[in-house]
Amino acid sequence: MELRHLRYFVAVAEEQNVTRAALRLHVTQPPLTRQIQDLEAELGIALFRRTGKSIHLTDAGNLFLREARAVLNRAEAAVRNLQSSLQRSQIELNIGYAPSPTVEILPKVLRRFNKRNQEVKMTLHDLSSPEMVSGMNDGSLDASFMMKPPKRLARGLNFVPLKTYPIAVATSPLHPLAKKRRIEIADILKHPLVGYSRIQYPDYHEFLRRIVGTGTYRKLQFAKECDSGMTLIAAIESGKGVAITSSSLGATAGKRLVLIPIHPAPSPAVVGLAYPSKNFNPTRALQRLIDSALAVAET
């Protein structure tokens, strides 16, 4: 569950109408509806009663609304306090990141960097790989923590590898495959698949094409396409299907999922720090971030 899910839930609860909530949030209605459904699935309880075009909170929904507002208020206060403490800072870095792949290494890098560079104001942006590449190319991002981008996206970028993850199949602990010690691609494809959205995460589908082969990829049928790592975890856990993914997903999912090694093992996924190659001589702040990332990777 992410803050985005709470914001969406509060907007729908206050508007009592998905269409109005979507307009308020500047998103389209179908993704908003999916986010609410995924939130209810993750909580295991109905938050709304749906009657015609209107929706109303259940008793559980009213309780969750109070808690969600409190969490969002606290998060906003934390951001304001941080911004206030850095108000006099003259150095700023805008950094993109992919939450699920970087969940292990990013906090360690930030702790090390912030301890030594308190004068630097860093703003983090949760984005897809294409969005991060676009941001680095247009100058709105200084660097990004991300999976190694495919060649077509990597033009004009330097990439510093930090950590590798084996490729695995993620299943529910109750799935028949969960007891296997390893699995071949042909056996995986006998089961329904879930994965990331083709539109939002085209690099994931390039990754799948590399793993299973172009001919096999064209035949794949997805039971569900997800717009975030948390949504993917919920889909797998609920039994909608299995996913071919980097084993970094296990750091977020914990015991909710089982990760089974693929045999023969494909090339591992690589997480690293990308920055524009035009920054042949990066700013001192960016160079310190690169140094912090390399130091963490070596530990």
From TrEMBL:
Gene Ontology molecular function: DNA binding; DNA-binding transcription factor activity
Name the family: Belongs to the LysR transcriptional regulatory family.
Gene Ontology CC terms, in alphabetical order: protein-DNA complex
**Keyword annotations:** Coiled coil, DNA-binding, Transcription, Transcription regulation
Q: What's the short name of a Pfam family annotated to this entry?
A: LysR_substrate
Q: Would the keyword Transcription be found if you checked this record's keyword annotation? A: yes
In this entry, which stretches build a coiled coil? 65-92
Which organism is this protein's natural source?
Phragmitibacter flavus
HTH lysR-type domain residues are 1-58
| Name of the protein | LysR family transcriptional regulator
